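Lecture 7, part 2: worked example. A protein chain together with pyridoxal-5'-phosphate.
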Amino acid sequence: MTPDKYIYLHKPLASDEEIQMVGEAIRSGWIAPGGPYVERFEKELSAYTKSPYAVALQSGTAALHLILKALHIQEGDFVILPTHTFVATANPVLYEKAIPVLVDSDQGQINMSPAYLEEAIKFIISKYQTKPKAIITVHIYGIAAPLKEIKEIAEKYEIPLIEDAAESMGTFYEHQHTGTFGKFGILSFNGNKIISTSGGGAVLTHDKEKAEYIRFLSSQAKEPRPYYYHKEVGYNYQFSNLLAALGMAQIKKLPDFLQKKEAIHRYYLKHLNSVPVRIFKDFPGGGTNYWLNIMILDKHSPGEFIQFMEENGIETRHTWYPLHLMPLFEKYHYFGRNETYEFFRKTVLLPSGAGLTGNEMEYIIEKIESFFIKNPF
Ligand SMILES: Cc1ncc(COP(=O)(O)O)c(C=O)c1O
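Predicted complex, written out as structure tokens:
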């Protein structure tokens, strides 16, 4: 049966609870940045992730930016990050005029390779006689990076580790929430994320002083005086009280979203066995929130498939194009053998939102099958 609506890749799910919480926040009169709902939301984030401190901000990008400020990353400093990521991981490095060093994945994994990471660190030390100032590891598509190995390398070279857990809220690596292994982690609550406040993000950290400094920077770096007085450049990155109320309703639903998304993953695994594709299912440390399902094509191009699905009212997308092959990044050092590019050439992301109905799932499978019937080679 054809569903009557377009099927999005990852549609946010909100209902009466969200309306009620935002309504309460409006009635409370706190229609402002910061406020009691932000404090409550931060407590919920801390409790869920077991991160001692959580600072909610306007976006995951803002969270990364203020972490770099808190680490005093400056012009000319090297910061290592994966090439397989969304540009938001790298942009804050460029805001500070620091130098991104891009590292690929290997051995069939999709996150940053520990072997290439170490190669990159050694190269920077020997060529520039300086250590990279930070390592940003990403849990791409919600799938945990090989944290044990990456953390060991960060500790060995005494380089602060930042985890970009924007896509991995709800992902635990060996029973510990992603974003809590390094010195800092970030989350995102953007419209396409597993929980959404339409826009928003947070810093996670064990470091009380740094958490306070980040909070200070996020509200224009106001000195604690009875009048406005400033010694350093600040930012307007504070989270909205109304969106925090929305976040509180969403975080309560996260366990349910996770269950539904796992069921969708299993559905794809079970029902796509008559077509020449595989669903990616290698999750280091057991870690995934099943944010987006990745389909690996053997012979067909993702472009044709995406177009066919679009014509049938279903949104599917390319996986992230590697940063090192983009004009913005091609001048920077890169370590790897184009593994992310090879991955990009044969993969697509399938609809994975927790609100997908049985009827919609059946329709998606039917359309995937008909693509391969129409395009056998
Ligand atoms: C890997 C990754 N890092 C960072 C971000 C930035 O988050 P935000 O959109 O909240 O700024 C996103 C998502 O947008 C992301 O996917």
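Residues 59-61, 85-86, 88-89, 138, 164, 166-167, 188, 190, 201 surround pyridoxal-5'-phosphate (CB under 6 Å). The first strand starts at residue 53 and ends at 57. Keep this in mind for problem set question 3.
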